[in-house]
Specification:
Residues 93-213 form the Fructose-1-6-bisphosphatase class I N-terminal domain. This protein is α+β, with helices and mostly antiparallel strands and 343 residues long. The protein folds into two domains: 22-213, Fructose-1,6-Bisphosphatase, Chain A, domain 1; 228-342, D-Maltodextrin-Binding Protein, domain 2, CATH 3.40.190. Helix content is 31%, strand content 21%. The protein has an eight-stranded mixed beta sheet with strand order 2-1-3-4-5-6-7-8, sandwiched between helices. A five-stranded mixed beta sheet has the order 10-9-11-13-12, sandwiched between helices. A hairpin with a 4-residue loop joins strand 7 (199-205) and strand 8 (210-213). Helix 1 packs antiparallel against helix 2 and helix 6 packs across helix 9 (330-342). The two termini are 12 Å apart. Residues 13-21 and 72-85 have low confidence and may be disordered.
């Protein structure tokens, strides 16, 4: 008898703003610098400044997303957007590229939805880092409040720093990430990041236009629950991982949630300490950074068939590899994989 749910629950609302008493909390640039002083990954300071640039650009993207969502005016960029007045998916990449052209902390950018990577002019300063990016994962079903996010991952370059980045800089083992994180733009904009010393969460305070640390310690999975966050339609039609994950949660009276966009589902699963299932995820730009975050929170991330995401990599020209993604508290991931093997 099948236990697969025939419907999904409305995602719980988790909108939190920093209280006024939290305005003295640590801001993102200070936290990155303090982490770097404890365990420096390079002596140039480029990584610290690159992360500063990413955070600063997401301030701008957050304002852009809010403004474009509430604007009814048509735009000449409509071909980039699910709705004529909605946010353009490539906007974070464009803003970061413009910033890094001047600052010189990266040598190449790989974006999930662009076939060709972005390199910087030979006349520009060529930085020592490689940036993998999912620019703007958009909730295409939102009607009253846009939900979307940016995912980023940073590696050290392999090629000479005297030239623009090249293919070999994108051929990375994903456990070589030096930093990773994501920003969720919604009614409250949140930033999560890790430099292999735990995962930290920041809220964007709209008046101060700064990311404030909250809570003031690394976040980790709480007591696991049997709920599931996933693209409900894709999981229902997936005969392998999705079907077994739905059956596993339903048999234990778990609920199924779909926030409408992948990164919002991932954030919901992190907060609820439950399973997240992703389908056809970009290895370098999506699966790798999210897997690092999950493991830094004490969980596990695999392809649903027992293969650890952080053991994967790219050693050929296919820098746009796709994978299935099963993540959450370790015991839940192991149980779903066991269920799938026995089916």
């Amino acid at each position: 008898m099948s236990h697969t749910p025939t419907s999904m629950s409305h995602p719980p609302t988790q909108v939190l703003f920093p209280a006024p008493s939290d305005m003295s909390a640590t801001v993102f640039p200070s936290h990155v610098r303090a982490s770097f002083r404890r365990d420096p990954t390079d002596r140039t300071g480029e990584l610290v400044r690159l992360l500063d640039d990413i955070a600063t650009v997401t301030h701008s993207v957050s304002k852009y997303v809010a403004a474009r969502h509430h604007s009814a005016r048509p735009t000449p960029d409509a071909d980039y957007s699910p709705h004529p007045s909605g946010p353009r998916p490539h906007v974070a990449t464009q803003k970061l590229y413009n910033s890094l052209c001047h600052d010189g902390y990266a040598c190449i950018i790989l974006e999930k939805d662009r076939e060709a990577p972005l390199t910087f002019p030979e006349s520009a300063v060529q930085g020592g880092y490689v940036l993998m990016l999912s620019s703007l994962d958009i909730d295409q079903t939102a009607t009253d409040n846009v939900t979307c996010g940016t995912i980023f991952s940073v590696y050290k370059r392999k090629s000479s720093t005297s030239l623009p980045g090249r293919l070999k800089d994108l051929q990375q083992q994903v456990d070589h990430q030096v930093a990773a994180g994501f920003v969720l733009y919604s009614s409250a904009t949140t930033l999560y990041y890790t430099m292999h010393a735990g995962v930290y969460k920041f809220y964007l305070q709209p008046v101060a236009t700064q990311y404030f640390l909250q809570p003031n310690h690394p976040i980790a999975f709480d007591k696991p629950s049997f709920d599931l966050y996933t693209d409900y339609h894709q999981s229902r039609t997936d005969p392998a991982l999705g079907k077994h994950a739905l059956a596993f949660c339903s048999a234990r009276s778990g609920k199924v949630y779909d926030n409408g966009c992948m990164i919002a589902n991932f954030q919901g699963a992190m907060a609820a300490a439950c399973l997240f299932i992703g389908h056809n995820m970009h290895l370098l730009c999506e699966a790798a950074p999210l897997a690092l975050i999950v493991e830094q929170m004490g969980g596990k991330a695999t392809d649903g068939a027992g293969n650890r995401i952080l053991d994967m990599g790219v050693d050929d020209e296919d820098v746009h590899k796709r994978v299935s993604f099963c993540a959450g508290p370790t015991e839940l991931v192991d149980s779903v994989e066991t269920t799938a093997r026995k089916a």
